[in-house]
Amino acid sequence: MPTESEILHVGIDLGTSRSAISASNGERFVVDSFVGWPADMVAKKVLKRDVLIGHEAVANRTMLDLHRPLERGLLKEGSDKDVEAVRELLKHLLRLVGVSSNGKVDSSMVRAVVGVPAASLRTNKQYLRNSMKGIVDSLMIVSEPFAVAYGLNALLHTMIIDIGAGTTDFCVMKGRYPGEEDQRTLTIAGDSLDTQLLKLIEERYPQANITIYMVREWKEKHSFVGEAPKRVLVTAPVKGVPTELDITNEMKTACETLLPPTIETMLDLLSRVEPEFQERVRNNIILSGGGGLIRNLARSLEEALKQVGGGKVTHMQDPVFVGSDGGLALALDAPDEDWEKLTA
Amino acid sequence: MRGGAINRVKRHVLRQAVADNLDTIRGLPPRSLRPGRRFTRLFLRRAPLVIIPLILAGFAFISSTGGTRAAKIAAPVAKSPAPKVAQASMTPMLMADTLEPVSASAFPLSVHRVVLDAGHGGTDPGASSTSNVSEKEITLDIQRRLATLLRTNGFEVVATRDNDRLIPLRERARLANGSASDIFVSIHVNSIPHPNNHGVETYYLGPTNDPALTRLAASENLTSGYALADMRKLLDRVYADVRRDESHRLANAVQSQMFSGLRGVDPGLENWGVKRAPFIVLVATEMPAILAEVGCLSNDREAEMLRSGAYRQQIAQALFHGIHAYASANDAPQKRGI
User: Fold this and answer.
1) What pTM was estimated for this model as a whole?
2) Are residue B78 and residue B136 in the same domain, yes or no?
3) Closest CA of chain B from A283, distance in Å
């Protein structure tokens, strides 16, 4: 049995858009959840690599067979490439915190807690576990909102709304491991917002040459609901000439598509909480995920809560590592005897 | 919450998270799906699905070792009440390495009750056209028209929504699963970035992985007897095969009728075919399930057509013919070589 100092514990947030890792050696990294393989021999020669990950993969996407392994919040079954992409992403994250390609850090043992979108855990848990086999010594897979709740000690009378890229996950924590009835998933999330925004901008500026990747960047900088904090001005080529475009209204319309289903699901889940605890849950709603950073979103949700007696919604200032930190906390708290049973 | 109480809750949820992972390692279904009654119900419901192929494979095994006579009588025996012969045929089946692929054609399943799912609703309008026609309104209207056609022709219909309200996808699947229906048809309208194109397409759930699972269950049974967990794996795997193949056949029937039925009134309509995708309603429903994209609101001309009741009726009729063709094929299994 290795000593505590020979064991590396890691928490990994395997997200649809971004994946983050927090390790017990103090290292923390985040990468875009893109994995690409050179599309042909020429691309391989130019890139001089067998596989590219994260921002590098996006930047070189024209030469790559590019994959986002958890698109729509699910690991697509039957797709070997997507499984391979998950494995490459995990290995890459582990390398970043010092784990060598054979899965070892200076001959020590690696124990990982991986948080995944709740939908993927509900529908193909076994498949997900098999896909991650053999990368670390011991593995625990949990739903992302649960990892967030654990990391924040928000395990009782709390609702986590995790707005990711592929899915928006809702989870009510009732002092137990969340079951089916405590969770909801919407596929309206960052990606659908990008698609909507692209469509609206193309309708208004049909001559502009815009990609979904540009739209995603703009959204991450300028997203808002309600009153615009300032005009949203971006630059894109129009007939080849860089041109400034005002996309304030389009940004507002696209971001506000999130509101109705989010509010409806939040209120529906609240109504299913035992009546004596509803007020406490209403006052403990936490927004996490990249979507939690949309300006005025917390305030809009609080507005909606007024119809059921009011409540408080807080958003994480730095949502990037909140899931992986939660995973690391789980990894460190799990006793050795449990880890020994969770071999990967 | 005080520190001691937090730690107590943390220990409690951590134990449950570990238990959940251990269940996955052992191949057990989620705890929330595992109360005794549900397992028994599932077992009883699905037992015929495994017993019939067991019989067929058992006779195939006998025929491969004992001449042609057994093979000749395999088909009639398959139609006889399963419990009488199950015991005799189970042993050769579990020893044989011929568990898959399990053909859906082994299960002549009649269609009596249909779940219709009108996409979107309430505060979720779905796609919309430049002239402000929304997907939720079209899907509901087509669903109502289709329900009338189905009921008139002797089918029972269960609707996931019958008015303009948002039903979460999970709720739709739960409703469908609780209704003891035979097939699930979700109606949607597309919107694509290319306004000049428009077409129809039909989705079904992509294939499950792990073709070795049934073999694994059989080999485990050789040494451990018929443990419930093993049998459950076997049943689920067989059922997954059947559901996928049946969903594929239903999707083919509906897509073919939709395209041929609507092309006459809309010559520019494109056939985008049958596709596989992991839509939540398809993943979570327990019966053969498809999602039909019956048109394209991003095409102005088609959006205009979709406003008209006459065109919606034609879509409903095309969907009805697809469902009817699938159901008729199921009611006449001898035509498919059983």
Assistant:
1) 0.55
2) no
3) 14
